[in-house]
Amino acid sequence: LHCVGCARKIERSILKIRGVEEVVMDMNANQVTIKGVLDPQAVCNKIKKKTKRMAKVISPLPAAEGEPLPPIITSQVSGLITVELNVNMHCEACAEQLKKKILKMRGVQTTVTEHTTGKVIVTGTMDE
């Protein structure tokens, strides 16, 4: 993320995903954190498609071919899931914009972006 405009575009896109409760942008870390009940890879793919930039899931890690999926961090009480993504963020403005976009998505509760590391942590309830 290099600017507020890019971040907002990404954040809005993420917030539209069902189950996303919160989006946190960290432009310094170049990271978007998405919270919600969702499929981490689906969110990552949507970000790649929308931004036409490289993005990858940091946590939970995608399963290798033939391996079982890693456990998803879930709250027993609320059904929340936390996903960590690696997103290219060029500046703090991009991280903030991305955070705002992700937060607008249904189901996203919290989002943490780290611009310097390019990480985005999203927590929320999603079934997609």
Structural account:
Mean pLDDT is 76; it is low at 72-77. The protein is 28% helix and 34% strand. α1 (4-15) crosses α2 (40-51). The longest helix has 12 residues, at 4-15. A hairpin with a 2-residue loop joins β1 (20-26) and β2 (29-36). It has one domain (4-61, 72-124). Strands 1, 2, 3, 4, 5 and 6 form a 6-stranded mixed sheet that branches. It is an alpha+beta fold and 128 residues long. Residues 1-55, 80-128 form the HMA domain. One of its GO terms (molecular function) is metal ion binding. It comes from Noccaea caerulescens. This is Heavy metal-associated isoprenylated plant protein 26.
Question: Can you give me a brief rundown of this structure?
Answer:
One of its GO terms (molecular function) is metal ion binding. With 128 residues, the protein is an alpha+beta fold.
pLDDT < 50 stretches: 72-77
Helix content bin: 25-40%
Number of domains: 1
Name the average pLDDT.
76
Number of extended strands: 6
Rg of Cα set: 13 Å
Shape: globular
Largest sheet, described in full? Answer: 6 strands, mixed
Number of helices: 3
Question: How would you classify the helix and strand content by structural class?
Answer: alpha+beta
Element-level helix/strand string: HEEHEEHEE
List keywords for this structure.
six-stranded mixed sheet, alpha+beta, 128 residues, globular, Heavy metal-associated isoprenylated plant protein 26, 3 helices
